[in-house]
Amino acid sequence: MEIIYVIIGALGGGALSYFLWDKALHAKKKKIVEESETQGDVIKKDKILQAREKFFQLKSEHEKYINEKNEKANIIENKLRQKELAWTQRRDDLQRKVKEFEVTRKQSEAIRDNLNIQLNMVQQKENELEKMHRDQVSKLETISGLSADEAKSQLMESLKGEAKSEAMVSINEIVEDAKLTANKEAKKIVIKTIQRVATETALENVVTIFHIENDEIKGRIIGREGRNIRALEAATGVEIIVDDTPEAIVLSGFDPVRREIARLALHQLVADGRIHPARIEEVVSKVKNQIEEEIIDTGKRTTIDLGIHGLHPELVRLIGKMKYRSSYGQNLLQHSREVANLSAIMAAELGLNVKIAKRAGLLHDIGKVPDDEPELPHAILGMKLAEKYKENPEVCNAIGAHHDEIEMQSLIAPVVQVCDAISGARPGARREVVESYIKRLKALEDLVLSYPGVIKTYAIQAGRELRVIVGSDKVSDKETEQLSFDIAKRIQDEMTYPGQIKITVIRETRAINYAK
Predict the structure, then answer these.
(1) According to the model, what pLDDT value does residue 18 have?
(2) Sheet of strand 248-252: strand arrangement
(3) Mean pLDDT of all residues in 106-114
């Protein structure tokens, strides 16, 4: 019995355990189902969202595609509409022209018929006149007893004799009148030409005043122990005088190009504020390039002002260089412009080619500003330059003959010669003193440049001092003293000058490297 109870108990415990296990399994299954349903809902929502986004994307792309197609269709439609309007307009124009042509054709036919009628009438009149003429000629021949050809010959002989006698009388009268009035008329032409050209009196300066805002800048320009002003003088070849003159610095030098370079360089340095030897050399180099560009620009402006076209670019550059050259104190560019205008006016008075005369007048002194200076008269050198750059032969001859170096071959040559004399001879045009002064300074510089080892030389202080810059690799310190002595001795022996000349030989050693 006890065994039965034990068995029943055991079975009862197993059933309970099974019941509990089944319940737990059912709960777990339910949980798994719920989680699956939850994940399914999530996945379903994600897929729905993705599908919706894809739908909207496709819809957007489709709408964009449709819009583009519509735009292209609108553009094509507008083009077609414009073409249709254009063709319609052309059709209307053609129809209008056809109508006009038809009217014109009818008018032309009417005019032609009228002309044919008039031509027939004229032909009839001509036939009647010809018949009347023949009748008159036959009557005259019968009355005079001469044929028409014989009468014509006798008449021509008598008229020829009378014409010869009258022509001789007129020629004699013209020659006598020309002898009396030629000199008077020539003077009148020259005076009119001079009166029609008004120019300023030429003045030549050897100093330039550079104005500054305050005197504190003077100290910066001089630099520590004068190194800035020495570097500026060495780079430009101009003496820079810094004295007690308020708010002004004097630039002294006989070469106007050097003075202009120094003035522009000082202006840039003062405006920039950085003033030291390296910066000075950099600015002076840039200013020299600017001056070269200004020379070309001046040449172009001059040719445009005078209405001269087709000049070779090198001739235009030489014309610009004349701005910085003087002849006996007269600015060479101003003189050449004046001669060009005078030549044009005089050529017009004489009935010659005005353009060629003006061209020859502008180029007549081109031989004074060559890049190199061969031993040739400036007229011959100018003629060779003009021939080199394919100028008109009359222009070349006028340039070469304006100082009688060659024979004149056209009427333009004496016109240019006379106008050159007029421009140079008017009161205040030239100053012999300035020209000889410049030649003396140029001779001083050329004398020093003939020594070996000399790189640059500048005559400053109106020729009372020579600054000589030598190469450090060619001349030693001891040789600089000997060079200074030799130059002074040669100047004493070969040149005539007032007072004394100080010769300063400068030898500078530089070490340059680049940090990269």
Answers:
(1) 74
(2) 207-211, 248-252, 239-241
(3) 86
